[in-house]
Amino acid sequence: QSALTQPASVSGSPGQSITISCTGTSSDVGGYNCVSWYQQHPGKVPKLIIYEVNYRPSGVPDRFSGSKSGNAASLTISGLQAEDEADYYCSSCTTSSTSVFGTGTKVTVL
Amino acid sequence: EVQLLESGGGLVQPGGSLRLSCEASGFTFSSYAMSWVRQAPGKGLEWVSGISGSDISTYYADSVKGRFTISRDNSKKTLYLQVNSLRAEDTAVYYCAKVIDDFWSGFLNWGQGTLVTVSS
Fold first, then answer.
1. A57 and B35 in contact by Cβ < 8 A?
2. Distance between CA B120 and CA B115 in Å, rounded?
3. Average confidence (pLDDT) over B55-64
4. Smallest Cβ distance to B104: which of A48, A99, A103?
5. Which one, of A1, A21, A4, lies nearest residue A95 by Cα?
6. Nearest to residue B64, comparing CAs of A5, A91, A98?
7. Is the confidence at residue B24, as pLDDT, over 90?
8. Which of B82, B86, B118, B96 is nearest to B10 (CA)?
9. Residue A101: which of B47, B50, B59 has the nearest Cβ?
10. Among chain A residues, CA nearest to B65
11. How close A80 gets to chain B, by Cα (Å)?
């Protein structure tokens, strides 16, 4: 199972909106609504910020939103803040009854 | 409060074995699927294996199939990962993770991880 494809880096200024893409296939992202997104600060444990494409766990700010179209999913961060600087990973279930993560995206707040 | 505490990592020679454990508390352990996710130093996340709450269903990444075995003891609220025939590329921090809802819905809670280093 190949990793889902994410851009290596995305940057934006405080207050701006950025979008991170996550491209898979019809055997994973395109086939199911089980896309999730994780935020990981350096040296920290990953944190779930979006699950089942567009649901936020309790406590996650509504600045974070998710969507999906075809074989690609997206995470949008609106009103970018300094604390959003981190690595972000998407994940999806697959037809093989496995889970696969994306390659990861480093978000830089300028 | 949900807590997951991994243990069992360490330095092992290529071809060696370890048994990783994850003690859970703060939730009804038997009601939730659990997974192991690993992260090699400076690299991204990799899902390794998952198991249903009832222990009936187990799943593995191709990279570890036949070498790793996931199991759980619901009476002890503990998740295990038996890792055999270890290779250098298995060097990573191994996290146990609890799903938020359904088996594949997403991993809400993570432990702090246990480091496995495979080296001669």
1. no
2. 16
3. 92
4. A99
5. A1
6. A98
7. yes
8. B118
9. B47
10. A98
11. 23
pLDDT tens, position by position, A50-91: 999 999 999 999 999 999 999 999 999 999 999 999 999 999
Q: Provide CB contacts within 8 A for A48, sequence distance 6+.
A: A36, A37, A38, A57, A60, B100, B106, B107, B108
Do B106 and A48 make contact, defined as CB atoms within 8 angstroms? yes
A89 in Cβ contact with A40 (< 8 Å): yes
Report chain A residues whose CB lies below 8 A from the CB of B70.
none
Please provide the DSSP assignment of B42-85 as one string: TS-EEEEEEE-TTS--EEE-TTTTTTEEEEEETTTTEEEEEE-S
Nearest-10 Cα torsion for B105, A93, B34, A60: -40
Q: What letter represents residue B69's amino acid?
A: T
From CA A47, how far away is CA A54, in angstroms rounded?
15
Rounded to whole angstroms, the Cα distance separating A71 from B43 reads 24
